[in-house]
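Example protein as discussed:

>
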Amino acid sequence: MNTLDPQLRVFQAIENYWKQYHCPPSIRAICSMTKINSTSYVRSVLARLEEDGLILARKERLCGQIVPVWVKDAIDRAKRVAQ
């Protein structure tokens, strides 16, 4: 059993997935990686992570739109350099 805080487990899973696949994980992928069985619980954890400013997520469709803040910052920097 993993005793890490669920928010930390979910955040680490998102970061690891982004680093490996360069795209956001699905809710079910997060469940699988964190061993959390409830998709609704993962959604509530994602909402807390967004409130804390650690991830960005589209409200109308959370699944597939989960972005760690560091990814957005890197994209913004690349856009500024390209200008």
About this structure: The longest strand covers residues 55-57.
